[in-house]
């Protein structure tokens, strides 16, 4: 390597050094740009997560508003029939693609589980279930999905 360097003319040596410095600057600038873009991406993720937090807080407020107004006790058979009726209703809705389970429980409630469902579609269904069948959400476990407005939820409802 040393022999090769010494065989170069002074002009070629200066040119090699200049190209090396230029190459170093390009690599350093590229690394800096990648880091700057990463920081910008992280800031965008923080903004998105903040929007999700606000969305989930609003969702919590909406669900908290669904207090049990009616406390009629239905038999397990009634809940089974209601579950079948709701299953038919959900089949006509966009929520159907995200339904994991709809079943009666031992304490005369219905348990609804959805995965990667639109929160607004879930709220539309709950509103319709309240208006049509008098169902109220008595317990809810809602987790946000990877996108804003998408949730995994397990809800208990009673009539």
Topology summary:
Elements: H1 2-7, H2 10-64, H3 76-91, E1 99-104, E2 110-118, H4 119-133, E3 136-144, E4 150-158
Antiparallel strand pairs: 1-2, 2-4, 3-4
Walk me through this protein's architecture.
- With 159 residues, this protein is an alpha+beta fold.
- The chain has 4 helices and 4 strands; from the N terminus they run H-H-H-E-E-H-E-E.
- It has helices spanning 2-7, 10-64, 76-91, 119-133, and strands at residues 99-104, 110-118, 136-144, 150-158.
- Strands 1-2-4-3 form a 4-stranded antiparallel β-sheet.
- The radius of gyration is 30 Å and the shape is rod-shaped.
- It starts with a helix and ends with a strand.
Key terms for this structure?
single chain, 4-stranded antiparallel sheet, rod-shaped, 4 strands, 159 residues, alpha+beta, 4 helices, 58% helix
Quick summary of this structure?
The chain is of the alpha+beta class and 159 residues long. The chain has 4 helices and 4 strands, in the order αααββαββ.
């Amino acid at each position: 390597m040393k022999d090769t360097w010494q065989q170069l003319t002074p002009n070629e040596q200066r040119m090699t050094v200049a190209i090396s410095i230029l190459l170093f600057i390009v690599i350093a600038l590229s690394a800096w740009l990648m880091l700057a873009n990463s920081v910008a991406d992280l800031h965008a993720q923080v903004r998105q997560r903040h929007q999700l937090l606000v969305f989930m807080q609003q969702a919590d407020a909406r669900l908290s508003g669904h207090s049990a107004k009616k406390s009629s006790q239905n038999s397990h058979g009634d809940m089974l029939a209601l579950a079948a009726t709701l299953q038919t209703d959900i089949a006509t809705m966009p929520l159907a693609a995200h339904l994991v389970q709809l079943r009666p429980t031992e304490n005369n409630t219905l348990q609804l589980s959805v995965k990667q469902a639109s929160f607004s579609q879930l709220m539309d269904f709950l509103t319709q279930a309240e208006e049509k069948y008098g169902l109220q959400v008595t317990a809810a476990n809602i987790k946000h999905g990877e996108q804003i407005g998408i949730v995994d939820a397990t809800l208990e409802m009673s009539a």
